[in-house]
Queue: 2 jobs
Job 1
Amino acid sequence: PARAQDRVLLLLDWIPTGEHAAYFSGVARGAWRENGIELSLARGYGSGDTVAKVAAGVAPFGVADISAVLAARARQNAPVRSIMQVYSHSPHSMFVLRSSGITSFQQLDGKRIAITPGNSHRLYFPEVARRVGINPERIQWVNTDASAMAALMITKRVEAAPFFAIHHYYQNKAARRAGEEIVVLPFVETGFAIYATTLMTTDEVIQRNPDLVRRFLRGAASAMTWANENQEQACRLHVQRNPEVELDDCQGSLRSTMSYVFNDHQRQTGLGRQAPDRMNFTWQQVASSLELAPGWNYSQAIDLSFLP
Amino acid sequence: MQPDRKARLIASLPAWGATIALLLIWEISVHVFQIREFILPAPSAIWEACVSAWPNLLRHTLATLGTVLMGFFASVIISLPLAMLIASSPTTSAAIYPLLVITQSIPKVALAPILIVALGANEMPRIIVTFLVAFFPLVVSSVAGLLAVPPELIELGRACRAGRFQELLRIRLPFAVPFVFGGLKVAAALSVVGAVVAEFVGADAGLGYLIQTSMAFFRTPLAFGAVVMLALMGIVLFQAVALTERLLFPWSSSVEGTTTATS
Amino acid sequence: MQPDRKARLIASLPAWGATIALLLIWEISVHVFQIREFILPAPSAIWEACVSAWPNLLRHTLATLGTVLMGFFASVIISLPLAMLIASSPTTSAAIYPLLVITQSIPKVALAPILIVALGANEMPRIIVTFLVAFFPLVVSSVAGLLAVPPELIELGRACRAGRFQELLRIRLPFAVPFVFGGLKVAAALSVVGAVVAEFVGADAGLGYLIQTSMAFFRTPLAFGAVVMLALMGIVLFQAVALTERLLFPWSSSVEGTTTATS
Amino acid sequence: MIRLENVNKTFRGRDGTAVEALRDISLDIAAGEFVAIVGASGCGKSTLLRLVAGLVPTSSGQVMLDNAPVTEPRTDTAMVFQAATLLPWADVLRNVTFPIRLMHQHDTKTDDKARALLATAGLSGFETKLPRELSGGMQQRVAICRALLQEPRVLLMDEPFGALDALTREEMSLELLRLWSARKMAVIFVTHSISEAILLADRVVVMSPRPGRIADIINIALPRPRSFEQEGTEEFQRCAARIRALIFKGRDANAA
Amino acid sequence: MIRLENVNKTFRGRDGTAVEALRDISLDIAAGEFVAIVGASGCGKSTLLRLVAGLVPTSSGQVMLDNAPVTEPRTDTAMVFQAATLLPWADVLRNVTFPIRLMHQHDTKTDDKARALLATAGLSGFETKLPRELSGGMQQRVAICRALLQEPRVLLMDEPFGALDALTREEMSLELLRLWSARKMAVIFVTHSISEAILLADRVVVMSPRPGRIADIINIALPRPRSFEQEGTEEFQRCAARIRALIFKGRDANAA
Ligand SMILES: Nc1ncnc2c1ncn2[C@@H]1O[C@H](COP(=O)(O)OP(=O)(O)OP(=O)(O)O)[C@@H](O)[C@H]1O
Ligand SMILES: Nc1ncnc2c1ncn2[C@@H]1O[C@H](COP(=O)(O)OP(=O)(O)OP(=O)(O)O)[C@@H](O)[C@H]1O
Ligand SMILES: [Mg+2]
Ligand SMILES: [Mg+2]
């Protein structure tokens, strides 16, 4: 159409994987263009980094975990807000080998688990342990590099390693080549349901250009809905832009990703919206794991009023 | 020239021998000890991964090469005057050196967000990080060379009324040429790793990016392919510096020549 | 000695001046340009964070210091013989140098999984990574020094029937002392950053670990406090090397002395 | 033209001891005068030249040149060092033209002049050699050519013919005298050869060692142009005997 | 003891041209003989010493020592280089004892012997100085002491007294002769002083330049012990005239 296009940058939370196929296919199909936005996408370096950069004005919008948004606002008064709840629960999981015989969290009692410094899995694990009735103190955490975690597990130097369930597909593919199979133990199965990935922006963008926020979210919702319904095509478009990703890997993780976006909870709350009790629980978990003041009013870091 | 080139060919044989031996040992031990692919893929697996992802690999290699070259040239352009400044007086040296040491002992990743916020998500922060990784050894060896000039030559310069600057340019610098090239060789190798560090910190393309994505998707052989490309790039750059030295400053490399020829 | 020390004190003034000026500019621009704390905290904020987390910060600093020192000593112990080996013949040099260049141009993080799986998640991979980061410039500048010996002195050695080894030890090595110390200074600074890289790869303590966890907890000032500790560690080590040189090899540092004294 | 007034020079060594190299040196040298300095090894001859060249400061006293104190090297002063001190990376021609280039007095004729000088020093055909490819005496001759090419008003020469054989020495001596009389520069010429000093100089300064002092100054009354045949003259032998006596007296005084 | 058989030496310069330094040199030197070599600058004297020292290989022909070909330096050969070549980081005493230490022949008396030698060379009190704190002549004397301390069977000296004044030169000459007659070593002594050659040597080898060849060998029939008074004798003057003629003939031959 003849409308002037706003040039907008969206910072992802990590390198483009199948998790982000909705955004890439949305851009390719013009989900934002028809809302007057010329969207470009840039990789991220973790949610914390994305939040910091959006707060600093590198980009107006970002993809980031809600815990990062909450922490940045609570601890450092960064003027950032989540504007759309993308994942209705977190993909935090424990990966174990089928050959280890472990099938439940209870069996992790006293086991060795690989971990990276500052990893949120470790921060949330005590709550999970409490829920299944094991002593989190008895876990032997083995600090290592992210790239070495899976290697340590498959060489059986540790019994488990925490990952986001979204990455199971290609990780398992690699494990199969080594004659092993990876089993996923999602935190959410223990009732540990906290909100995760959101779209976020700054107070300044909201004040200056609320219409842009609205249009941006309209595009995002349409892109996600289409990608959910046309996963294979979405991945084809994604792989075109990101030749590092293989098509089946993309589909594997997009399939998994979409189950975090479109599910029963979403059907109850509506796409991108939150249920107050789950948000409350999320804040409790984030506050205690990141040592934030529990009494802080977390709603100042959230503004879902621009959702279509 | 002819026998020279032949001699150099022969001199390079042990390097090739060592490389081939290393590759063979690697390939064999991967099979014998059944080393898992995602820990250390066999050279053959790396080769296959490289071939099948070739256009993509090439694209990333070129992206990195650009950063490497710009970072390397930034190092050269900044380090040489800096070295002269440091060598020119103990006062400037005392003021500048500690600052340089600081740039070396802090992790570059800590600087990355600042650089990106300050300069934008473009090529600039990458070049700066590459520069920061590569320049210091060049400065130190250039300074060492500039200060190693025998006192007689300095006295000769003074007798010819050479000012500080001329002394640096006409006596100290020519004398320091072998040391500067020693530093350039290190800087060439470090530029490569510097560019990768920079890409870990902010890039949508390049071998550092490829390593990260390949690792994330557990395509370890491709990640190692990228590492091999980096190693090749390092060696080619190193040899390019060595060749430049031989072509432009034959007397410099001949210093090695004569001393080793006494054997 | 007394006037010497005073002169050195005066010589260090510009360094202090530069540091203080830098801190002031930093503090002021953070306030003037309203730079967000999570991008670049003000020195005052860093200071507060350090003070309030002091015992913890100290513990991590000591952990890193251990890795740094072990990595540094590993570099020294391995680099000097390696440099002698390389300097001893063009053949060994041609065989070894490319391998060293490879170790430099590949990112150390790519080695992390291999090292950790091969050696376990203990101190060893950390020391190896620190060593890999620190040793190369030391080797290169030592080799440059060993090969820079004037041919007359080599001829003197040969006339005294010095074998290859004695020539290295009694003529080339003393001559190379200033260059070796140049390399040691670089190695000292790089050991610090090497230890941090190593800790990124696998550690449950140390300043690298502290930086990662502080960042994860959005405690940017503390992360920068850790960076400051690293910078301090780098400077202290660097100065320790310089002091050792002055104490053990007065003639070496005096080379600078005489040439600069001609001004 | 050159005037040394009560010059003293003491070096403080690295081992802490002080060496008194020169004590109370006073000397006047006219423009265009040729002065030779002889004296025992270590008596301060090189130090004296360095003081006049402005390369080292006096400990006390003053060196004046054209009535201005010498505090740094001057463009109209050229020095031949005791060791050849050539740039190892430059070939013979570039070594000879080095000071001229450094002082930006280089023009199209400089190279030709340099070649001509090298030829008179018997070094034709060695222009593109590196210093290390030359014999000791050849290196010394290159250093002499370098100083002469500067066409200085004051020429300071520190044992310039030390490494030369009798033949080359004679040739170079005559060439030096020819240039000196053509250009009328002041020359201070350190040598350890008494006969060389007498043959070349208007006056010979004899120094005595530890500390370096001026023992005496001998006027050489031989007519110019000088030639080696004058070695047989009575005046020559008289001067030689006088200088020998002064130098060898130094030994006895020292031993006492 | 030392025998050179049709020795040739050609250097290939960096600029591509070849320099024929020595052509067809044959020479026999007996144990305990003192041979001096004189000749124009650049005629190959230093190269000849280097060949005998085993520091450079011949291009053709052979150098024999005790009937074995010389292919590398030997412990019983000591060399005084034309430039002093001292270790810049070591003090005088350590410089003098350096070869002995290197060859592990160092014992408790070495330092005392070194001090005694330095004293005879007039360097008492300079044991802890660094080379750069010495005058040119003092450095040369240190280098001579270094060679003498090795007590070699073959002593090769390349213009060892080049930087010494007449007095010191005479003292050192006599000291050298004293040591030589006490130890009976073979000495090859390169000098550019004809009188020095005659006063010291049993035979004087006169070389002619471009390429370096042996022009003639002069037997010196002066009785030993030698002294400087012998300069006045007829035999001395005869030898001197002969050598001068040979050297100066070289000039004319060259010019032709
Ligand atoms: N390393 C070298 N490379 C090339 N040419 C050389 C080398 N050494 C000596 N020459 C050449 O060999 C010839 C003889 O040199 P040599 O040093 O033996 O002369 P010399 O008789 O000792 O002269 P002087 O009395 O000046 O010391 C010279 O022409 C010199 O240029
Ligand atoms: N840089 C220096 N540091 C310390 N002492 C020095 C220095 N230069 C010279 N001396 C001392 O000063 C004295 C005179 O030295 P100088 O070089 O002037 O002697 P010289 O007359 O030139 O002797 P020669 O004929 O041997 O060259 C010597 O005792 C020497 O040890
Ligand atoms: Mg002198
Ligand atoms: Mg010679």
Job 2
Amino acid sequence: MSVSSATEVVDPVPGAGAPHLPRQPDLVQLLTPEGERVEHPDYAIDLDDQQLRELYRDLVLVRRWDVEATALQRQGELGIWASLLGQEAAQVGAGRALQPGDTAFPTYREHGVAWTRGVDPLHVISLFRGVDNGGWDPVATGFNLYTVVIGAQCLHATGYAMGVQRDGSETAVLAFLGDGATSQGEVNEAMIWAASFSAPVVFFCQNNQYAISVPLERQSRVPLYQRAAGFGFPGVRVDGNDVLAVLAVTRAALVAARDGQGPTFIEAFTYRMGAHTTSDDPTRYRLASELEEWKLRDPIARVKAYLSRSGTADQDFFDAVEAEADELAVRIRRGTTEMPDPPGTAMFDQVYAEQTPHLAAQQAQFEAYQASFGEASE
Amino acid sequence: MSVSSATEVVDPVPGAGAPHLPRQPDLVQLLTPEGERVEHPDYAIDLDDQQLRELYRDLVLVRRWDVEATALQRQGELGIWASLLGQEAAQVGAGRALQPGDTAFPTYREHGVAWTRGVDPLHVISLFRGVDNGGWDPVATGFNLYTVVIGAQCLHATGYAMGVQRDGSETAVLAFLGDGATSQGEVNEAMIWAASFSAPVVFFCQNNQYAISVPLERQSRVPLYQRAAGFGFPGVRVDGNDVLAVLAVTRAALVAARDGQGPTFIEAFTYRMGAHTTSDDPTRYRLASELEEWKLRDPIARVKAYLSRSGTADQDFFDAVEAEADELAVRIRRGTTEMPDPPGTAMFDQVYAEQTPHLAAQQAQFEAYQASFGEASE
Amino acid sequence: MSTQTLTIGKALNLGLRRVMEDDAKVMLMGEDIGRLGGVFRITDGLQKDFGEDRVVDTPLAEAGILGTAVGLAMRGYRPVCEIQFDGFVFPAYNQIVTQVAKIHARSRGKLAMPIVIRIPFGGGIGAVEHHSESPEAYFGHTPGLKVVAVSNPVDAYWGIQQAIAHPDPIVFLEPKRRYWDKAEVDTAATPDPLFASRVVRGGDDVTVLAYGPMVKTVLQAAEAAAEEGRSLEVVDLRTLSPLDLDPVVESVRRTGRCVMVHEAPVTLGLGAEIAARITEECFHSLEAPVLRVGGYDTPYPPSKLEEEYLPDLDRVLDAVDRSLEY
Amino acid sequence: MSTQTLTIGKALNLGLRRVMEDDAKVMLMGEDIGRLGGVFRITDGLQKDFGEDRVVDTPLAEAGILGTAVGLAMRGYRPVCEIQFDGFVFPAYNQIVTQVAKIHARSRGKLAMPIVIRIPFGGGIGAVEHHSESPEAYFGHTPGLKVVAVSNPVDAYWGIQQAIAHPDPIVFLEPKRRYWDKAEVDTAATPDPLFASRVVRGGDDVTVLAYGPMVKTVLQAAEAAAEEGRSLEVVDLRTLSPLDLDPVVESVRRTGRCVMVHEAPVTLGLGAEIAARITEECFHSLEAPVLRVGGYDTPYPPSKLEEEYLPDLDRVLDAVDRSLEY
Ligand SMILES: Cc1ncc(C[n+]2csc(CCOP(=O)(O)OP(=O)(O)O)c2C)c(N)n1
Ligand SMILES: Cc1ncc(C[n+]2csc(CCOP(=O)(O)OP(=O)(O)O)c2C)c(N)n1
Ligand SMILES: [Mg+2]
Ligand SMILES: [Mg+2]
């Protein structure tokens, strides 16, 4: 299995003014939108029934979490929520390709990856509730905290991979980014560094077609996976709504990275079926028909169809997953509404590993000031 | 004539871990190091004798200027000097490809381009003497001021080209950068923007093999011209020591830009024969033998050989150019040593187009303070 | 009648529209400012009316926005750059500090840089990390830039037009949590100058200074203080670089006391400069040191803590009390 | 004997060597720091002895240097990043301000950021644009960072080791024009703490504060003043964030007068914060306002003007005189 992109000379990309660009190859796909299993010359995958059912379960539970969080935001329980709706397969596929010792560097939308790393959904929700900046342990989970500044985590992932390399560890690093992020200078620097140091990092770009309202065409006039070739490493485009293909392609790239073959860029071609965040109104910039089209490529429906048709799972299984999802939703709802506010001192106590006298004094003033209200009202 | 890079599937670049990278095509060359005129399938050039002689004259005068400036620095007349030694053909070829309405955005080393734009050498020297940040008029000359912060000018050039586009002007923009600069995020952003807006800008990269002491391999493991394909526009590699090839390739790219075909990336393969600047000691990081090899590809010697052999120029011509160079050197020397220091108020008076009361007050204080010494010593 | 009730957001939108009608060289650039009209809708409808060449949805790269704006300015355009949120201006920092701020000086005046950098700034909207920053001191410490902050719809309407017409680069700070505050705006009036502070409430006991979102907070504090018989003079600084301290000096010489309020971390915030200058200019009149109320010297906290982080009416009054106790 | 005469540059080089010997997790990263040994030769010989994996010549990208350093720190390394010149730190500004400074807080202490950012800073070497900047206030205003500036070989030798051993991110400012200044360094001594200011000359009339390159200038001024019968107390601040003002407060309460000197533009420079804090803490002792001597509020000028731009002995004495005239 090789991680590579064949480049052939074809007609110019319309309007690009570049006569000889590599052809956009077909997406790597292993499961069609209709749920039909297909083969790809470069990417095989061999999962047993149990593994297939677990992928389905991941997809469903992650979507339910997302739906619940969106509802909680609507009800004022969260400040904002960044929905992964439609990107479940990209995230679960990528996340399940990781080995325990690997490390992932997410953006702010990788709840599905968080799930595969065993991060408690409530630890993600606490960020969007404004309690903290993410409650999970990035070291124990191998899942870095969310990074809100677009693209900054790509350099962190690359540096971390340089450390992995120096440690002689046979693990790999998976950096997440969006299509919009590919325009940031820092993201391009990350690719340059990864290439120069042949760092064991895989760049996993969820091309969900939009950066908030801005369509992909503003970020690049050629398919994004082609960017990598310019930096001297392979790029590959995968159907991001096909969990099997994503798993296979990401696995291959991670294997190559662990094996000392350096970075790969994966473009997971997908679609953000919801709003950018709960603050966004996508009707201002995209047509309903587009969404309808993508619904036909739903990442969960096709797995369900395949599981049913192939007899890998029956209705009892689907019902059980549904029930589990209901429980998860309840747990998330209860956990959210019962989540305590942080104490005011939380502002001060972890700014530094070694607190400064100045900040300690400020904290003392703050506490005295807060206490003065207590006294006043007593 | 097309500005393009053929991409073929070949063996991997050694150590790159990328099995299918486009082949590094031969350099575009029209004049061999031995001074033999050769043809290239994509790039023709047709210059009359007069034009050929003028190119030679440019090369010689620019080198003499550079040698003189280096000497002036050694004698303490300049703070520092960034020598173009060895890069004369890349700069003269690129500069002479420009049309009068075009605009160039240099780094800090493009004295040869400055020359072609009619910039007075003393206006460049005043920067290195510490009198100002470049004394020429960037608007009148179509030659922007030098930019010291690596790569920052590439975005300026792209923005300027977007303006050209909006003005409906059929002119083009030429952005200069070094091999090291290709690693800067901002440079990559410039290419992304240029592609997205199909801006009439040509990126002219002098790959002189080093960024101070750091060899190209640290910036990229594939040839730099390939970077462009990742952004969706053509890249081409030209023999940067061949003034004819540089002129032909740059012309073609500028024609394409003026013609609405968007950006091109040109990698001029050359060598910095001197130190990075007069503060640098290249013996710490490169072997003398490397320099010797490149001396055989000297950009001036090959033109002279061609002119002689083809009978385009005779000894009288060469002598006349030599005499002109001597005169230029004298003018530069005299102009430098006689260059007046700026008045102290020059710090204040152009910080803003509309001076602030605060800074005006500071200036007044400064003047009063300075005057107090005058009084004291009177 | 030329008077309408406008929010700050709408006032900015109208101001932008007006200046775009008047000057074909004005261009807007930023992320999502086109079809979406910006995440705060400040540019709503402008792309539709002025076209994609003048209202440019950019790639997602702030250095790119500012760097290409520099080139456009060199070509004679007047770019107005929107930074989506305060916390995302830093990728553009190199272009702002080493290029935008210096090019006029570098070229000895041959190249003008009439660039406006619009930044919705400050906290109080319950946002996640990087959406509530107050980066004004970084710009105030940078020679070559000018910095203004608006606090109300009238200044928003006129200020954006004045800033765009101005020949120097201006960081234009918009108090995002006040975008929805309303006031009457007379669009036919003669505006106050852009680079002038303004006494917004007269008083005798303590001079309290603020800008942007804190002006409202301080006015509320002044109201509350009045009920307790304390008379605060409130100055809206409006221009942060250059500072316009004449009205402040006049005021402090009268009151003998000064409190400076901003959201930014107190250390090396605008309050530091104000304290230094006011102390120098009013040394013999001061009955108390200039006191500063600001954000704590911590990263902006998660939103559940922002009420405690941000200066509020009580903290302003507390500082006023402390000043009066000297 | 453990005492040697060292320049600041060589002291840094030895300090780096010592800490690299002691801690295999220490890595140096920067442009030209390997074979060349850095443009100021601070890392001379270290790549040869510690290898390319620990002394990394990076691609030419400052955001890349800091951003990968963050990842390396997360992996347990202690990256020491060299920024070649002060003026080139700005491409890394986003990583420094939004990531390096915040990650400890963001992770509630689960991720340490023991990164040292070495910056040769300040002017006086006759360089071209962007090679003479004093960006310390930008970092001092950023919660989560610590900032120190060394002024002499002893502090250079120990300070760099202490900074690398420290668990928080530190901007480590090296006075580039003093790199060649020499002093005796006892490499077996017990160093002073990193985050402490130091009285470097006792005196009674005026307290004069400085850091980095200006310490020498101020000491020369004190010498000159002494000849005219004026006794200046000189404090080397050493730590700029957090500030250590206790010795300053003690001193100013005694002298009643304070002058702060730095190269950075005076507006919103460190002097502003010092003035605000000292005035607050010494209000009743001050006989004159804290006076500031700094760079003018202009871009750093072409080198032919830097002598006039930079504070020198005369300007310090002028401020001392003005302080005494109050
Ligand atoms: C440096 C920076 N600039 C701007 C923003 C505001 N912003 C948040 S998400 C976003 C769009 C991101 O698009 P993409 O990378 O495609 O990821 P997606 O949200 O689609 O997953 C923008 C502009 C930001 N967070 N960081
Ligand atoms: C942002 C930035 N970082 C570092 C430097 C210091 N510096 C000056 S020239 C240079 C190397 C540039 O190499 P390259 O781009 O190949 O251009 P060349 O000097 O070879 O012409 C460096 C690192 C700088 N000027 N700007
Ligand atoms: Mg997207
Ligand atoms: Mg080079």
